Amino acid sequence: MLDARYAWAIFYQTAHLGIDMAIIRDQKPVQVVAVNGTGLEELADRVMGMASPADVAEAITEASREGQEVGEAPAQAGPVDAVEAFFDLVIDELSALRTRAELEAIAAAAALILDCESRGGRVHVTGIGKSEHIARYVASLLSSTGTPAYFLHATECIHGSAGQVCPNDIAIAISNSGTTPELLSAIETLREFGTKIIAVSGNRESELASISDVLLDAGVDNEGGDLNLVPRASILAKIYLLCSLSVALEARKGLTREQYARWHPGGALGRLARGE
C-alpha distances in angstroms, 161 versus 125, 135, 149, 199? Predict the structure, then answer.
């Protein structure tokens, strides 16, 4: 065990100077490892102001009781704590989205789709990466609720698939950053056909937002998880808005239970729609 007379030197050089060092005094060298320095800095400041080795030893013991031992990394939250924190974060993010959601923008997007359909147009939904999965779901959701929609592969769009888009059609383009090159190339191609664009993005200042006819703002402050990188909350935000759009269209069209049952005859949901 390192003598208390020398302990202050390790604390000071680790916390303030960032120097790895070893003190040899009839024992093996002490290895100093990289740790979160906040607690060490506070302890070092206290130690440097003490003249008595007994006071130093007492300070070290007290810090150990508080979980600030040398070489001990900050405790990480367990899986249950992490999940509970994520649940709370998602509720906060969706509540904030609801508060700032521009109902006028959702209504404008619905009106644009209805106008497109009145002129014989159809809806296409596109995205890259995780947004592609959302696009496939939304195309299916809209189709099952009375708004025929088709998934458009953004990458393939500039390699021939743009041919599936006809005059008077409209496209829903999904991108959290609004800067995905492949998606922007596809949208530029569609714009040349005169296609109207509904953008769903977390970046109001993005190029996608600037070239769209209607923007649904799906921005979030935190994705959740330790990294705050993996798309989680932003995925839920985009689905939240697009489901809201489907609800608006369903209400405008007056979808009935009988109509839904005809479009969804199979499975438990089909039987439920028929009242069986």
Answer: 13, 16, 15, 20
The reported pLDDT for the residue numbered 100 is 83
Determine the Cα–Cα distance for residues 171 and 128; give it in Å rounded to an integer.
14
pTM of the model: 0.72
Residues of the chain with pLDDT under 70: 1-76
Domains of the chain: 4-65 (no CATH), 79-273 (3.40.50.10490)
CA–CA gap between residue 172 and residue 195 (Å, rounded): 10
Task: Please state, in angstroms and rounded to a whole number, the distance separating the CA atoms of residues 142 and 239.
Answer: 12
User: Amino acid identity of 58?
Assistant: E
How is the beta sheet containing 149-151 ordered, strand by strand? 149-151, 123-127, 170-174, 196-201, 214-217
The pLDDT of residue 63: 58
Query: Comparing C-alpha atoms, which of 207, 250, 234, 245 is closest to residue 102?
Result: 245
Length reported for the chain = 276
Per-residue model confidence (pLDDT) at position 41: 58
Q: How many CB atoms lie within 10 A of CB 191?
A: 15
Task: Answer whether 248's CB lies under 8 Å from 209's CB.
Answer: no
Q: Could you tell me where the DSSP H helices lie in 145-229?
A: 154-157, 181-192, 207-211
Which H helix or E strand runs over 58? helix 53-65
Please answer whether residues 273 and 260 qualify as being in contact, where contact means their C-beta atoms are separated by less than 8 angstroms: yes
Q: Count of CB atoms within 10 A of residue 76's CB?
A: 8
Compute the distance between CA of residue 212 and CA of residue 203 in angstroms, rounded to an integer.
12
Q: What pLDDT does residue 155 have?
A: 96
